[in-house]
Amino acid sequence: MKINETTINVRYQETDMMGVVYHANYLVWFEIGRTAFIEDLGFKYHEIEQQGVYSPVVDVTINYKKPVRYGDDVHVVTWVDDYDGLRVTYGYEVRYKEGGVAVKGTTKHVIVKQDSFRPVSIRRSFPDWHDAYIEAMESYE
């Protein structure tokens, strides 16, 4: 399966009073990883939005295993976890540079029309994206 690894520079303002990264910031990091993954596939979010659609998150799972602190070297590993032609689920792991997983999670997305928020088939409306998702799930690196 195709993966993307994106380095995250933990900023002080991302931490809470306990000195660890505030839990909601991992969702921002997931988005950074997802955007980089999509760019690796040869696409950009703004290009799909110019075609009159959005890709909202419809479900999130997240499992916090170990805290990340200011100054830690981490990266987000992103891949396509599941895809059915309508919905795509991205998988994520926030990993320490020296090894070990801090956080695991997924986000599920659909493509919807901007004006009505009605779902759009990726398979039919965006065949290039469809093919890229299928290839990303099947490829080995």
TrEMBL record:
The keyword DNA repair does not apply. SUPFAM superfamilies: Thioesterase/thiol ester dehydrase-isomerase. This is Acyl-CoA thioesterase. Keywords: Hydrolase. It comes from Halobacillus amylolyticus. Coiled coil: none annotated. InterPro entries: 4-hydroxybenzoyl-CoA_TE, HotDog_dom_sf, YbgC/YbaW. Gene3D superfamilies: Hotdog Thioesterase. Belongs to the 4-hydroxybenzoyl-CoA thioesterase family. NCBIfam families: YbgC/FadM family acyl-CoA thioesterase.
